[in-house]
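Q: For a teaching handout, I want to show students what a protein-ligand complex looks like in token form. Below are the inputs, and the small molecule is PXG. Please produce the holo structure.
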Amino acid sequence: MNDADTAISLRARNARHHIHPFSDMDALNAEGVRIITHAEGVWLRDIEGRQFLDGFSGLWNVAVGYGRREIAEAVNAQMLQLPFYNKFFKSTTIPIIELAEMLSELAPGFSRTFFTNSGSEANDTIIRMVRHYWQLRGRPAKTHFIARRNGYHGSTVGGASLGGMAWMHAQGGLPIPGVTHVAQPWWWGDGGDMSPDEFGLWAAREVGHAIDRLGAETVAAFIGEPVQGAGGVIVPPDTYWPEVERICRARDVLIVSDEVICGFGRLGHWFGSQRFGFRPDLMTIAKGITSGYLPMGGVMVSDAMADVLGAGGDFFHGYTTSGHPACAAAAIANIGILQREGLVERVGHVIGPYLAERWLGLAQHPLVGEARMVGLIGGLELTPDKSLRARFPKAGEIGTVCRDVAYRAGLILRATGDCMLVAPPFVLSEAEADMLVERTRHALDGALEEAVRRGWM
Ligand code: PXG
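A: Here is the structure, written as tokens, with PXG included.
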């Protein structure tokens, strides 16, 4: 069999046996799935030998880039020494002790971590942990969560309920009771005549109004991503988070920072909450903790909360593979690379500003209404008329066209509706950043041509 036959047969077998996440399976199988076979640095290679610049770090997670032997070797060594032991019955393993300690050093005031296998599981854990906490504090009526429309907190029942994706709720009767969604701080889309700073305060006060409507005595916590990722890289105005913090503190409502995308350096700080200057009570972590080399997530707990939980007897919650030793070994090696190579500082002070300068320049393109970037995460709002911040009639069409042109030009970009998203690995070089911007510009030109041809503008 030659390579082409192999690819055809692999696609057919995939179509017969594999259900993909977030995919229209009939459409995907008709088109034929991409098969990625190799990767190095920021570059992917598919089974046909095509090369792609991965502008998206896998799925927002491959911070240290591909091909890191030392992570593979650390995992291999751990697998050979002790592939598994549980944490349930008064036991632990050495890698998880080391990792938990390492995390506490990255996030002062968060000395303790509960481990999970994903961000979704971590957010489900948070629902149970927060309610348990308020019971221990003698306030069992505090059960309600406030979250944002268009936020993303995972795909489990709890995670998807906290998330504010209406189209996810529509499949299967979500959200669960006890979750209220409020406005997202998306100035470009929803800011109207307000300045970004005014709008940031307005959106924060929506959190306060929701708490007051429900009664603060029933509200347990507010959850938000420092920068919304999947929702379209929504960067809140600087006024937003301090006001949310003030409002929640005044009402004794806990703050959960979902750091699954923003954590581990993506915004140029170890955690996104540090970038925006607020102090959460809990942090959801996943993705960048291992750069995706193995699955791992967790909940980092503030010392004040951990003291209450610690004195509260059993917390009846855990996953068989919570704190898996091989995943912990991957995380330790990954964080070691971030530290040794100064990659968080590189995002904050070197490659982040370098890419941002060029990315923000794309706002000059006739199709781009707003360009934004913080650290190494950015978005481009596509618009038929930038002076009006107008939207295309059917959201998602032009974004898909743009994404597909980028793909044909050898660049992986993500589209949320008509916003183009980028989040490259932290090892991106200056030359690769130039290439990323050039290919994005080419994709915008192609999308503009297509929009005109189809009469959308
Ligand atoms: N919180 C946030 C902020 C996330 O971005 C999760 C929780 C859930 O993590 P797990 O590990 O359970 O997937 C995420 C995940 C996309 C996309 O298309 C984003 C995520 C996952 C899948 C797709 O942008 N984020």
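A: Two things your students might notice: Residues 69-340 form a domain with the Aspartate Aminotransferase; domain 2 fold (CATH 3.40.640.10). The first helix runs from residue 3 to 17.
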